[in-house]
Amino acid sequence: MGEEGKGKRTAGLPWDLLEMLSKLQEVELEDVLIEAEELELDIQPSAIAMPTTAPLTLASPEKVKPTELIKVKFTPLLMEYPGRVLEVKLGATKGDGGTRSKAVVVGGATSPAFYTFERPPPYVPAISLDVFDTTEVPLPKAIRMHVEEVRDDPAEWAKLAVGKFGADMVTVHLMSTDPLIEDASPAKAAKTIEAVLQAVDVPIIVGGCGDPKKDAAVFEKVAETAAGERVLLSSVTLDMAEAGILEGVARAAEKHGHVVLAFTALDLNLARELNRKLYDFLPKDSIIMDLTTAALGYGLEYTFSIMERARMAALMGDPELQHPLLSGTTNTWAAREAWLKMGPEWEPRELRGPLWETVTAVALLLVGVDLFLMMHPAAVRTLKETIKEFMNPSKAESKKIMNWASAEI
Amino acid sequence: MAKAEISPIDIYKLLPRTNCGECGERTCMAFATKLASREARLKDCPPLLKPEFKEAHQKLWEMLKPPVKEIVIGVGEKAVRIGGKLVMYRHELAYHNLTPIALDVTDVTPEEALVKRVKRVENFVYTYIGRQLKLDAIALRSASNDAAIFKSAVEKVMEATDLPFILCSLNPEVMEPALIASHERRPLIYAATAENWKDMAELALMYKCPLAVFAPDDLDLLKSLAKTLAEYGVEDLVLDPGTFTGNGVSDTINNFTMIRRSACKGKDETLGYPLLGTPITAWLEGEAKPELNAWREAYVASMLMSRYADLLIMHSLDGWVQLPLVVWRFNIYTDPRKPVAVEPGLRVFGKPDETSPVMFTTNYALTYFTVQSDIESAGADSYLMVIDTEGLSVQSAIAGRRLTSDMVADAIKTTGVEQKVKHRHLIVPGMAARLSGEIEDLSKWHVMVGPSDSSGIPKFLKQNWPPKED
Questions:
Q1: What is the pTM of this model?
Q2: Which of residues 214-233 of A touch B (CB under 8 A)?
Q3: Cβ pair B216, B245 in contact under 8 A
Q4: Which residues of chain B have pLDDT under 50?
Q5: CATH number for domain A83-390, candidates 3.90.650.10, 3.30.300.30, 3.30.565.10, 3.20.20.20
Q6: Which of residues 134-173 of B touch A (CB under 8 A)?
Q7: Measured CA distances, A230 to A132, A177, A213, A227 (Å)
Q8: Complex prediction ipTM
Q9: Which of the four, A144, A389, B114, B338, has the lowest number of CB atoms within 10 Å?
Q10: C-alpha to C-alpha distance for B272 and B263, rounded to whole angstroms
Q11: A71 at the B interface (CB within 8 A)?
């Protein structure tokens, strides 16, 4: 991520996209967790039924111009898949030994993403918003303007993410533990997590700093402090395995009832290898995969195809890839097109940036991502609205667009 | 997946098997392999056009024919090919013929504004990895529903641009004079519907232009129309199942997906035509602010690009709307079998000498071209080592261990840069800061951590080069 620093609000942008978007939301978006039963009520049986009717009228064999419409029926091609994606529960309520008000379940897919004509997914994708525990991490202006007042307080920031921006979950990036930033101790990191757990009642993702050894130490400590809360530890890697420290983290996660995020870089063989190593210590429903999210313009197509391959492999029965998929969509902001001042024809970047994140997110929504780590409130709103619309089929009104070709726009 | 998995042997059996080499391959077997992987086309083999191979040629054509027909709109250099898709999922092979974006103008727009808008479409350009990303076509809509006005607007569009165009009016009487004026430019006729299909079919046949079929959220009707029009003799069809951007976005994506699945996996030739998406309908949602319509139009367009639209009609020409779309389109139409990489090695900028800065980056094309352009804009005489990370960016390569401190230390030796400069200072990308210590240990060079984004290179060099100590 980068940002050239200080920068005022662009002149001539007298409105706030987020506010405008929020006005769109006549119906509120509180779908943290939609159960399959609820969904089925909304779906017209005809939308998923498989008609077998033959063509009503057969075409005449010779090439005589038809004088009437030849009526044929469209029959969707529906498929069965031998495999399915595991369901993973994040966060634990009182009854389950934690203090969250609600758990979030991700995964469970039995068809490609949002093929609602075939089988609607049992759970909808969840969105977790980013919170950083240090102001040393530069934030793009388009983000900063929404979180300015809470930047130095992860607990307050988490409240804002849930209360105002509608996050299903919160990711606390413990960047202060980075030896190159503040080298904060595991104990201090655990305190931060405790504070966030008290501030909000949604499930939490605990993000490390990327240094395998430090992360392992931090995760073990946090796992203990947050025992029973079923947090997601983000992330464990093959580097940890190589350094001989994966086992400690995995065992701590298992002992205290947490979930781990298995991170690999755009390589399904490596993803399988890491999962196999984790199976020695953890139940399968405690693993989520992160196959690496590259930003739009910076390799998103690799992410798109590898996620789609992973999901198809899972449905076709590959037991080592049947974990829910997570995307660090926040990586979008590494793309300079998301934040850089590029000249008047590409402005305002206050819209360009969140749209960049939105486009990245919806591309990955369509290939099966179950859990999104995101940053910009407008991108989050749009993705939530899209998910809600996807789960709400048979709402098209053809007369609304029938005359678009001659409409005044 | 069937189409992607044609055996080279089956193809080989039908080729002349003379190893004549006219296709550029040494043997017919090599050519067969290229045909199977879609890296060559049948027309690359001239002997196949001889009468004795007529039957074989026909069989090969059937065998290699894409499940989604390829259709041409426009003429000349700027004509666009749409459809021609071989697979449903990109990872099964690759997507072909990237989705053109057409921008709308109406026939009630005053001439000056119309020409200005057409020119803006034509002049839109964004340079990305050394390529020029552009917009492709004009969709002229008849808001007047008046034949003379529509015809006059077509003439103005034709005069203003060589871009291909789409004529949009559901009224055949308005369509015909415009077609008389413009059919030699091979516009797409939009559109045949349940009401007007016979008249539109006659126009398509008479003026030899491709015809779009519009049946919003009614796949029975869409399929019936496609079948009827094919029987009628109209060969080049484009299907529009309707684009709903608010309520109904689910039906939209489902319809596009079901049609493409039937064509690719179900071999349903009735639906084996390119699909047209119209995110422009976002502007009918009645938002208070144009930015909200544009926002909706943009993300729905991006979804349709991922989910089977072979042609898009849009309204917003704003840079912030079109930029992510032209980039995403370029990205998903790259061949997943080939990493987008540049040659590793040493690059020289300006006229560096023994005191010039030494930097490194990876051989992912986008990373490289971005760094290149930033060094050039800094006007810095310098050396840049391009390290082979199998086409991954710095961040991904480090995470995936495809960029390690050993590789950096090796590059200092193998690129010969250590003989070219006297100092021992290496500027590493900010994203590679983590490797600093190990690089210093292995190479004995002093590491300076550069900016996380290469746009910071000019400023960094200004402030930090030459290094203060030594």
A1: 0.85
A2: none
A3: no
A4: 1-4
A5: 3.20.20.20
A6: 141-143, 145, 168-170
A7: 20, 22, 22, 7
A8: 0.86
A9: B338
A10: 5
A11: yes
